[in-house]
Design goal:
The chain has 463 residues and is α/β, with parallel strands linked by helices. 38% of the residues lie in helices and 21% in strands. It is built from 14 helices and 19 strands. The strands form five sheets. It has a six-stranded parallel beta sheet with strand order 2-1-3-4-5-6, sandwiched between helices. It has a five-stranded mixed barrel with strand order 15-16-17-19-18. The chain has a three-stranded parallel beta sheet with strand order 7-10-11, sandwiched between helices. Helix 1 (4-18) packs parallel to helix 6 and helix 8 runs parallel beside helix 9. The protein is globular.
């Protein structure tokens, strides 16, 4: 699948043509799944002999795209337009586009026809084929062949992308895909069409990867899936997500275990029990609600009610009193009325979210919601969005304040980019903490006393 020697030879020849070791920049749009895919792409490029860079004026630039919202597509087209001008003066440059946006036939065809300077296009189902596609792209460039290489499988298949080398963004934490795709078909969502139906990896395969990461110095893992709560249903010998999480907590040796994303309709009592009983499972749950209106939830095909969701929140808080709860909320769904917005804001206040990722509905061609009557105009949606944002900020600030005066273990992630002599870390509740220190190693966990809440982050001092 991955002939590193042959690919390295081609990279060396390419380096001879351009006069230096080639640089490569991978730009990621979208979710943690895309970020994890990008680490695989970086791993292949690094082993092929490219020098990784964060500058888009590189010899090889690849955009790993998202298509959940229209503005993500627009950003990609805008960035490609800028690269077109740069490539005119640097004809050796290679430009590639991959990811969810490319699984949309319309988008892929449009890109090939309108932007012929793009050298390589492939979709989410072709990730494991990247080494082969990179090889052919280099051959084309060395042979002075200027045509777009396109490979997009229309259906998911049992590829081996998890076996590709990976270049992680952090040495001390990593994401681990436990499943792919989604079977929920929410009426607004394009993900099942571009990521395919649910496919779960075996528990043995997942545990093997996690143990290798632990041996490599990783202390925190994020178990990833579009809906981790439905993990294991497609396996020959079904395993529940609660059983997998319990196994990871018992056998991985990890200091911290996180997971996302969870669908409310599939959150089991067993999973709540495992979270409550295992100290290594972080006390943070991302549980997208999308709307607080039963009428809108039904139109969204979410398959739960606001009463179901609030009962679940109550159950979670009783089992895990210190739980940090975050969510996704959408405003401007077709047919939405002021009463629906009021119901959503009321749910925000009742649930007491620590944070919420708020969005304005974006029409995605091919989804049922795209043809629903009552599409909301931009001005109305923006006004309602601001109402929601105010409620989220108020609630999050109150929730964040509960940590003031407490001493919490904080895993250090980076030097603070805005204040010299400060570090930035994260609590198990997934809250950022900024604090002054000059003797901490990135990846270490230190006790920090929280002295001030800023709403969505905390200020502390090391003790």
């Amino acid at each position: 699948m991955f002939d590193q020697h042959r690919l390295s030879v081609l990279t060396d020849r390419y380096a001879g043509v351009i006069g230096h070791r080639p640089t490569a920049c991978v730009v990621t749009f979208g979710c943690q799944m895309n970020a994890h895919d990008s680490e695989k792409i970086k791993g292949v490029l690094a082993e092929a002999g490219f020098r990784l860079s964060d500058q888009e004026e590189s010899d090889f630039v690849i955009y790993n795209t998202c298509t959940v919202r229209e503005n993500a597509n627009t950003r990609v087209y805008g960035r490609l337009g800028q690269l077109k001008n740069y490539k005119k003066d640097h004809p050796h440059m290679i430009i590639a586009v991959c990811g969810c946006m490319m699984q949309e036939q319309r988008a892929a065809a449009e890109l090939k026809n309108r932007l012929p300077f793009v050298d390589l296009v492939f979709g989410t189902f072709n990730l494991d084929r990247f080494p082969v596609l990179l090889e052919q792209t280099l051959i084309n460039r060395l042979g002075n062949i200027h045509e777009t290489l396109v490979e997009i499988y229309e259906k998911e298949y049992a590829g081996e992308a998890d076996r590709l080398p990976s270049k992680r963004s952090f040495t001390f934490k990593a994401g681990v895909n436990i499943m792919y795709g989604c079977n929920n078909f929410c009426s607004y969502c394009i993900v099942p069409y571009v990521r395919g139906r649910e496919r779960s990896r075996t528990k043995e395969e997942i545990m093997q990867e996690i143990k290798m990461l632990h041996q490599d110095g990783v202390k925190e893992i994020m178990l990833l899936g579009q809906n981790v709560n439905s993990y294991g249903k497609t396996l020959e010998n079904p395993v529940s997500f609660a059983q997998l999480l319990e196994c990871v907590a018992a056998e991985s040796g990890m200091e911290r275990i996180r997971f996302m994303t969870s669908h409310p309709k599939d959150l089991s009592d067993d999973l709540i029990r495992v979270m409550a009983e295992n100290q290594t499972v972080c006390k943070h749950l991302h549980l997208p609600v999308q709307s607080g209106s039963n009428r809108i939830l039904k139109a969204m095909n979410r398959r739960y009610t606001r009463e179901n969701y609030l009962a679940l929140v109550d159950k979670l808080r009783k089992a895990i009193p210190d739980l940090s709860l975050t969510t996704d909320i959408m405003i401007g769904f077709p047919g939405e009325e002021e009463r629906d917005v009021a119901d959503t804001i009321d749910l925000v206040k009742q649930a007491g979210f620590d944070n919420a990722f708020t969005f304005i509905y974006s029409k995605r061609q091919g989804t049922p919601a795209a043809t629903m009557p009552g599409q909301i105009d931009g001005e109305t949606a923006a006004a309602r969005f601001n109402q929601l944002l105010e409620a989220v900020h108020e609630t999050a600030y109150k929730r964040c304040e509960r940590f003031v005066g407490m001493t919490l273990p904080v895993m250090i992630e980076d030097q603070n980019r805005h204040q010299e002599g400060w570090m930035t870390g994260r609590t198990e509740h997934n809250l950022l903490v900024h604090f002054p220190t000059d003797s901490c190693r990135i990846g270490s966990t230190v006790p920090v006393k929280i002295v001030e809440s800023k709403g969505f982050y905390l200020i502390g001092r090391r003790v």
